[in-house]
Specification:
This protein has about 230 residues and is an alpha/beta fold. The protein has one domain: 3-Layer(aba) Sandwich (Rossmann fold). Helix content is about 35%, strand content about 30%. The chain contains 7 helices and 11 strands. The strands form 2 sheets. Strands 3, 6, 7, 8, 9, 10 and 11 form a 7-stranded mixed beta sheet that branches. Strands 2-1-4-5 form a 4-stranded antiparallel beta sheet, covered by helices on one side. Helix 3 packs across helix 4. The model has no long low-confidence stretch (mean pLDDT about 90).
């Protein structure tokens, strides 16, 4: 489902014509199959976030290729990427990225609004998803009225609302206490097993990595052991 071939990327700092190259990723190659939970595990600064941004099209790689469902997305335009993300990806963020002025219901419904889904259909779909993540009773609550775990469940519900094949998660439990972390990880496992959703998670937390079918260890921009995944 996700295939990365010899992906490299650098940042450049300094004045134009005198830029200094800072390599961030070096020759990354990996494969993730449909229905797997895969994690990129590594310390801060290892290149995890850059890799996620490249896979999701928010950055263009310096070299290498990215294929999603066999389609080479490496040279997509911003317009192509915007449509592709909406159709294929859901996103879960460490800091939830909820809109403070919108209720739980409206935060989850936002992607449906952008897709032009009729209000009556939106209501049914959002209620279904909120029931799924255990937040139907909090539908009219605003983010500041929810716990951290509840806010992350709202984020997960929003990620699920368009039935994505792949969910990209950036430190999904990084802002949560250990007990709430377990609840969110159990929910991710449940969604993966029952709905076959592919999860691609970046994390520095070993407990998060342990729920994965595949773990890839990233160190200083390169995969440890030549990119061989560790089956768990």
């Amino acid at each position: 489902m996700i295939e990365i071939k010899n992906l490299s990327h650098s940042f450049y700092v300094g004045k134009k014509g005198k830029e200094r190259e800072i390599p961030v990723l070096n020759g990354i190659s990996l494969e993730i199959s449909q229905g797997e939970i895969a994690s990129i595990f590594g310390k801060s600064g290892s290149g995890k976030s850059t890799l996620l941004n490249l896979i999701s099209g928010f950055m263009k790689p310096g070299s290498g290729r990215i294929l999603i469902n066999g389609e080479d997305v490496t040279s997509f335009s911003e317009k192509q990427w915007a449509a592709f993300r909406l159709q294929n990806f859901g996103f879960i963020f460490q800091n939830f990225q909820l809109i403070p002025s919108l209720s739980t219901f409206d935060n989850v419904a936002l992607p449906l609004v952008l897709e032009g889904v009729h209000a009556s259909q939106r209501k049914l779909r959002v209620q279904e998803i909120l029931q799924r993540v255990g937040l139907l009773e909090q539908a009219n609550h605003f983010p500041n009225e929810l716990s951290g775990g509840q806010q992350q469940r709202v984020s997960i519900a929003r990620a699920l609302i368009l039935n994505p094949q792949i969910i990209l998660a950036d430190e999904p439990t990084g802002s949560l206490d250990s007990e709430t972390e377990k609840e969110i990880l159990n929910l991710i496992r449940e969604l993966n097993r029952q709905q076959g959703i592919t999860f691609f998670i970046i994390t520095h937390d070993e407990e998060v990595a342990e729920i994965s079918d595949k773990r890839f260890y990233l160190h200083d921009g390169a995969l440890v052991n030549g990119g061989v995944s560790i089956e768990v």
